[in-house]
Amino acid sequence: MSLDYDLVIIGNTNQAFFAASEAIKFNARVALVLGNIHDDSWQEIDSLIFNYLTYIERHWHNLKNWYLNINLDSWLDFNQLQKWSNEVKKDIKATNNLESLANLGVDIIEESGEFCRLPKLGFVLKNRTLRSRRYLLATGAIYNIPQIQGLTEVGYITPERLDIDQLPNRLVILSQTSLGIELAQQLNRLGKEITLIFDNSNILPLEDPDIIQLIQAILETEGIKLLMNCPITQVREIEGTKWIQAGNEAIETDEIIIADKIKQQTQGLNLEGVRVKIEADKIQINNKLQTTNPSIYVCGQTISSYNLSNLACYEASIAVKNAILYPIFKVNYNLSPMRMLTNPMFSQVGLTETQAKRDYKKDLIIVRQNYKSLVKAKMLDETTGFCKLITRRNGIILGCGIIGNQSEETINLIALAIQNKVKIQKISQLFPPYGTTSEILFQISQKWQTQKPPKNTFINNCLETLLFWRRKWNK
């Protein structure tokens, strides 16, 4: 039986569109099945817009308190904000439209379907079955609602259903992910009373202690109540008020927001019927992004506590190459930068300090530079934060973590250096414009030079002798 396609992509997400555009570059016959599964691509855009507006709100109040004599509590008009947000989304959608993919040769199928195993593997639509050499799942993600006594009866909301203008004042956020931290800070800056509850003792289990301590201190300084090691046992409503039993504490709140771990949308796809194994709401894959059925690949899996579109598109690029060519390409998340939408923003690439010490023992130089050394940080009153660079003793960069203004832009330079094996000595030869955030990389590279081990004592001794005699000769 002949095949209809080289690759069938299932999903209505940014990573699905990106995968289709990448696959067509190999002159492959590609189908994109949109289905009726919810597109979650706007969630990250909403978070970005929300983060930007709360950032501007803070600076507006600084100007009001320090420099301007005006009587205005807030300039945020939520009706205008929603209108502007929709316009931004409309413009973004125009750049990712299906018409451009169709013009490239991708078959766009606006139907839903499911996998079938017999007589051969295929994807069954209403009136036909798609046969392909390989398949790629690029569906979106949904929140995993914890099983808590009384939660369903009392009610809750998830981030994609937030109506900021209608939110009550007292909010409890249940989260084990970075999104809960982002949301807590953003809502707090809009005047909400926030309690953020974690089951464990660490708000970011995969990050270094100094990163965690600073982020936690920022949240608590801004008035967010953090409850650690407080598993929630039950939720009740008493006289119109919601009560949460978390550990030994009973918390009264107006609304509950669930921003817990997320899982990939797989409902209605019959994955179990084609021998795709799912454990703990997660599709089992190898480092080539193959499922337990080697003809089916996955991208957009939730990585640790981060769910970022750049990681999903990186996975899509690896999965497409493996599906179209041959499965030899492996994912390496150390090469992809990540960021968390806090203020100041946290960004990370490569190994953490903990991982580097485990893998490289004493063959390390770790340099840290505070943001208060930057002219731009002082001008913007954003001196909280630091940049931590992790290298081997020969200058090879292993990782970087930054908390501070525009860290999401600076981290890209370090990611590029790691990917191309550019040593820190090269960064010290760059002289960024005065008053820019990237000055911190120059400063940290200069600081690294003072900590590196002596490379050649003979040359240093010769240079010292030469300078000594030159001073003598000039007398």
Automatic annotation (TrEMBL):
GTP-binding is among the record's keywords: no
Family statement: Belongs to the class-I pyridine nucleotide-disulfide oxidoreductase family.
Keyword Nucleotide-binding part of the UniProt annotation: yes
Domain Ig-like, chain residue ranges per copy: 209-309
PROSITE patterns found in the cross-reference section: IG_LIKE
Organism lineage: Bacteria, Bacillati, Cyanobacteriota, Cyanophyceae, Oscillatoriophycideae
Cofactor note: Binds 1 FAD per subunit.
Ligand binding (FAD): 113
Keywords of this entry: FAD, Flavoprotein, Nucleotide-binding
UniProt xrefs under InterPro entries: FAD/NAD-bd_sf, FAD/NAD-binding_dom, FAD/NAD-linked_Rdtase_dimer_sf, Ig-like_dom, Pyr_nuc-diS_OxRdtase, Pyr_nucl-diS_OxRdtase_dimer
Gene3D superfamilies: 3.30.390.30, FAD/NAD(P)-binding domain
A GO term, aspect molecular function: NAD(P)H dehydrogenase (quinone) activity
Protein name: FAD-dependent pyridine nucleotide-disulphide oxidoreductase:Pyridine nucleotide-disulphide oxidoreductase dimerisation region
Cofactors that this protein relies on: FAD
